[in-house]
Design goal:
The protein has 71 residues and is mostly beta strands. The protein has one domain. Helix content is 7%, strand content 35%. A 4-stranded antiparallel sheet has the order 1-2-3-4, with no helix packed on it. Strand 3 and strand 4 (58-61) form a beta hairpin. The longest helix has 5 residues, at 2-6. The N and C termini lie far apart (39 Å). 8% of the residues are buried.
């Protein structure tokens, strides 16, 4: 079962690039303030840097996601 192989403790999928971290979901807000759940997924391993992101319907891989000072 592929799905079981990629899942790790806590229910997050493991990163298939580095196989050390897990993919953590990130959410954001749209232009009108509506929440966008799971807009991006990033690897928890800081040495890996893998990410997958959706912007305006386009999926991108591996781009460095900027840090925000917003809380």
């Amino acid at each position: 079962m592929f799905f079981r192989e990629v899942m790790m403790e806590g229910g997050f999928p493991k990163c298939l690039k580095c196989e050390k971290g897990v993919l953590l979901p990130l959410s954001d807000y749209g232009r009108d303030g509506a929440p966008i759940r799971y807009k991006a997924w990033v690897c928890s391993n800081p040495d890996c840097g893998f990410s997958i992101r959706i912007d305006n319907g386009e999926v991108s891989f591996g781009k460095v996601l900027p840090y925000s000072s917003k809380h």
